[in-house]
Design a protein that fits this description.
Blueprint lengths: L1 E7 L2 E10 L2 E7 L11 E2 L5 E2 L2 E6 L18 H12 L4 H17 L2 E9 L6 H12 L5 E7 L10 H11 L3 E2 L9 H18 L2 E6 L9 H12 L5 E5 L8 H14 L2 E4 L1 H7 L15 H6 L3 E4 L16 H11 L5 H4 L8 H6 L16 E4 L4 H6 L4 E6 L2 E5 L11
Helix pairs in contact: 2-3, 4-5, 5-6, 6-7
Bound molecules: 5-methylcytosine and fe (ii) ion.
The site of fe (ii) ion (FE2) has 6 residues, from loops.
Length: about 425
């Protein structure tokens, strides 16, 4: 199969991408626009990218907002309480059905790689069992990484350490954590040592909900980064949210950045979620409650954006479209200078792929999987500005999804 008249990111000219079986077998620069032969897919000069990536979502909690009660304060902690209520009523089929519905929303938006946090603070590990099945059943649509996520704590939840260990034995890919939620600072620190030991011993990746609060004294990121640095695990470790960094003073942050850089860890920000959940204890001036995305990026660190929620106890909106989060994130993080705009898809493609350690399983290059998405615009800037949708999604060399762009006519000139 050939994809003709493809514009590639950061590369001038039109290209033909040839796929054989499940792999990309050739990428050739065209002299100009070419005519489609039978079987070709014509990108018509639009952007062809490696699939969009969702590096941070909670597929076990998705589509439960208002069940049984809405989060009225809009805080993270009320979200955790409301979820604990809903968690009592989850069933295997309920979890699977909601996760599959959400995965279809993601796939319809050109996402093919997903990392989901799954709550393992449940003595039955019911959500995890369901999600392990979903990981296999949804393989034709997405590659799914499962994080063993201790929503109610590792140290402050009864049996938390055993549940984490069992979750990894059962097949979780990534070890999670929530140090800012543990009862004491000491427990927060010991939870990080525990989870890093578990990951090092088992070869799992690490992705910790870290300092998801406006409290400037929440400083578990330095603990996570130092553990990663000392063990040489930085590229395999991710700090999610780190919203407290939006409240750290610059003196502390300048010291912290040295360590973060030396550690080589990755960062995920969920800007729509954080602008909604944080700032809730402020009157005015009111903090944004989002981590320092632009500053991390400019310091040469790897940072990407995620949706976090779709209609759950923490966040009532969302529809699977990560470009909406990119749009909001660039506004919130003061990243609308042209230099940022013209490469903004990095934040939802290459940077996220690096966070997920996808390696040679991702990217447009000969020999890599033929997973490709044609967007309905010609460059990063226009994709963002027009909120261009995925027009075609190709997975393992086969068309997975097509979309007919909307046609609008203005009557009467
Ligand atoms: N759980 C949590 O601790 N934080 C979040 N943002 C979500 C779930 C969505
Ligand atoms: Fe999260």
């Amino acid at each position: 199969m050939n994809i003709i008249n493809a514009t590639l990111r950061k590369t001038p000219g039109l290209h033909t991408i040839t796929c054989e079986g499940e792999r990309i077998s050739a990428i050739t620069l065209q002299a100009g626009s070419v005519q489609a032969q039978p079987g070709d897919i014509d990108a018509q000069g639009q952007l062809v990218i490696a699939p969009l990536v969702e590096p941070h979502i909670h597929l076990d909690a998705t589509l439960t907002a208002g069940q049984p009660e809405w989060n009225l304060s809009g805080t993270l902690f009320e979200g955790i309480e409301r979820w604990a209520q809903r968690k009592e009523t989850i069933t295997h089929e309920d979890t699977k059905q909601r996760a599959h519905t959400t995965i279809r929303m993601l796939a319809e938006h050109g996402i093919q790689h997903v990392r989901t946090h799954v709550d393992v603070t449940d003595p039955t590990l019911g959500a995890l069992k369901a999600m392990l099945e979903v990981r296999e059943e949804a393989r034709h649509l997405i590659d799914l990484q499962i994080v063993a996520f201790p929503q109610e704590g590792i140290e402050s939840y009864e049996g938390g350490r055993e549940l984490m260990t069992r979750a990894v034995e059962m097949g979780a890919d990534v070890v999670g954590g929530i140090p800012h939620f543990e009862n004491t600072r000491d427990q927060g620190v010991s939870s990080i040592k525990f989870l890093m030991d578990l990951a090092e011993r088992t070869g799992c990746l690490v992705d910790v909900h870290c300092d998801e609060t406006d409290d400037p004294h929440s400083r578990f990121l330095e603990v996570l980064a130092e553990e990663a640095r000392v063990r040489g695990m930085g590229s395999r470790v991710t700090a999610s949210h780190t919203t407290a960094m939006g409240s750290y003073d610059n003196a502390y942050c300048s010291k912290l950045f040295r360590l973060l850089k030396a550690s080589g860890i990755n960062f995920v920000s969920c800007p729509t979620e954080s602008i909604h959940l944080q700032g809730r204890f402020d009157t005015f001036p009111k903090r944004r409650g989002v981590t320092r995305v632009a500053e991390l990026d400019r310091a040469g660190m790897n940072v990407c954006l995620g949706q976090d929620s779709i209609k759950d106890p923490w966040y009532p909106l969302g529809n699977g479209n990560i470009l909406r989060v990119l749009d909001a994130g660039l506004h919130i993080c003061h990243m609308m200078g042209f230099e940022d705009l013209k490469r903004c898809l990095d934040l939802v493609t290459d940077n996220s792929a690096r966070t997920l350690n996808l390696g040679e399983g991702y990217g447009i290059a000969v020999g890599r999987p033929a997973n490709l998405v044609i967007l309905d615009a010609e460059n990063d800037y226009e994709v963002l500005r027009r909120q261009a949708k995925a027009r075609v999604s190709i997975r393992a060399g086969k068309v997975l999804m097509t979309r007919v762009p909307e046609r609008v006519e203005l009557i009467g000139g």
